[in-house]
Design goal:
With 409 residues, this protein is of the alpha+beta class. The chain has 2 domains: 284 residues, Naphthalene 1,2-dioxygenase Alpha Subunit, Chain A, domain 1, CATH 3.90.380; 88 residues, Rieske [2Fe-2S] iron-sulphur domain (Rieske Iron-sulfur Protein, 3-layer Sandwich), CATH 2.102.10. Helices cover 22% and strands 28% of the residues. The protein has 6 helices and 21 strands. Strands 13-19-18-17-16-15-14-21 form an 8-stranded antiparallel sheet, with helices on both faces. Strands 3-4-5-10 form a 4-stranded antiparallel sheet, with no helix packed on it. The chain is globular. It binds FE2/S2 (inorganic) cluster and fe (ii) ion. The site of FE2/S2 (inorganic) cluster (FES) has 8 residues, from loops.
Length: 409
């Protein structure tokens, strides 16, 4: 809606499209040109894709109630904040997976995450001071190292000994990957889904990051994210798509690490903004636990990548971080134009969740139909299998099989 009001918006988009087309024009679509594991996965997926191009065997639409557990996967890494929000010697209070946390960066640049609660009398440590080496509580000045260990209690008089090693603030594993801080919600990161790494982007930071609070449980945010049928209704706008643009689609999927991938295809012809990428782009969309969607749009010379990470803030509260990466330098100049587009898009999803929340009061059963809701079913199956695998102390076994899905959107 915001874009209807931009004077000359169509003109600017037209110019942008021409610029993009010119820059991206090139020989055949590059498939393995980006190198690394991503390219390997990509070429393997293409092979599987070829074997999958056959019609689905049944047109029957089955009904199933969803089997959401409602549980937050604690043994998982979650996107916390862009690294630029945590400077050396600064503390940032941040709620994640139902815990009040404190994020910080020490004098050496290492990030850390602690429970934001002084073990003495429970004052949030984020109200205190941090000099890059020790956090000092604002109430009685107890000091703590970034690993959570107590390093000093100013009130102790001479001769009063206390074993400080027995006093700790709970620390959560924290890592900075490609400029973003991820925090682990449990105790044992070994055997958990890895933090997504985007090999084609190297140390390149996201060109655009939008953070949006979502008023609902992570399950609803994730299934909304992967839901192909809401586009023509929720994201209807002149710059993206119209209700009339609805048509039948067929996409091949294959299991991929910790999730599934929509195999290479041409971007939806009814989504106008994709034309901005120009050339003959190919898209893959990967989903992985606990709630990360990575969409890669590639041409011979360039890549546009959308990574959306859903983070549980509490039981009925989530946050969506949408990161857009691109390799086209001139697109950076258009960032002021793209930012409101991305924000408007996320707001549409957030607004529909606001409405859904009203109906979800009382936790009614929900329906998942073939084929449009199959990805949502997959998400619940993946989640259930991961919970089972952790409980049984065994390796996660991806329960999904390659499949072609058809729907209208
Ligand atoms: S509450 Fe933190 S030092 Fe007393
Ligand atoms: Fe959406």
């Amino acid at each position: 809606m915001a874009f209807r009001m931009v004077p000359g918006g169509r003109f600017v988009l037209g110019v942008a499209r021409r610029l993009l087309n010119r820059t991206l024009r090139g020989p055949a679509i590059g498939r393995c040109g980006t190198g690394g594991c991503g390219a390997l996965l990509f070429s393997n997926l293409q092979r599987i894709s070829a074997s999958l191009r056959r019609p689905t065997t049944s047109l029957a639409t089955s009904l199933a109630t969803d089997d959401r557990s409602g549980a937050i996967l604690r043994e998982a890494w979650y996107f916390a904040v862009p690294g630029s929000r945590v400077r050396i010697g600064k503390l940032l209070a941040k709620r994640l997976f139902g815990e009040q946390l404190l994020l910080g960066r020490d004098h050496a640049g290492q990030v850390f995450a602690l429970r934001d609660r002084c073990p003495h009398r429970a004052i949030p440590l984020s109200f205190g001071q941090f000099d890059g080496r020790e956090i000092e509580c604002c109430y009685h000045g107890w000091r703590f190292a970034p690993d959570g260990g107590c390093t000093g209690i100013p009130s102790l008089a001479s001769g009063q000994s206390l074993d400080l090693s027995k006093i700790r603030v709970r620390a959560f594993p924290a890592r900075e990957v490609q400029g973003n801080i991820w925090v682990y919600g449990g105790d044992d990161p070994a055997g958990a889904p890895e933090i997504p790494y985007l090999p084609e982007m190297g140390e390149r930071r996201a060109s655009l990051i939008e953070t949006m609070p979502f008023p609902g449980a992570i399950d609803h945010a994730v299934t909304g994210l992967m839901d192909p049928a809401h586009g023509p209704f929720v994201h209807r706008s002149w710059w993206w798509r119209s209700r009339r643009s609805i048509h039948e689609k067929e996409k091949a999927f294959a299991p991929s690490p910790w999730g599934f991938t929509m195999l290479p295809h041409a971007p939806s012809r009814n989504s106008r903004a994709y034309k901005l990428v120009g050339g003959k782009p190919e898209t893959t969309i990967e989903f992985r636990l606990p709630g990360v969607r990575i969409e890669r749009i590639r041409t011979a010379r360039h890549t546009l990548l959308n990574m959306t990470a859903v983070t549980p803030i509490g039981k009925d509260e989530s946050e969506v971080n949408h990161l857009i990466y691109w390799t086209m330098p001139w697109l950076t100049a258009m960032r002021p134009l793209l930012r409101p587009l991305a924000r408007a898009f996320l707001r549409q999803d957030r607004d529909i969740m606001e409405k859904q929340r009203i109906g979800l009061a009382g936790d009614p059963p929900l329906l998942l139909i073939n084929d449009a809701d199959v990805q949502a079913r997959w998400y619940y199956r993946l989640k259930a299998e991961y919970l089972r695998a952790r409980a049984e102390g065994r390796e996660f076994q991806n329960p999904l099989k390659p499949r072609v899905l058809r729907w209208r959107s």
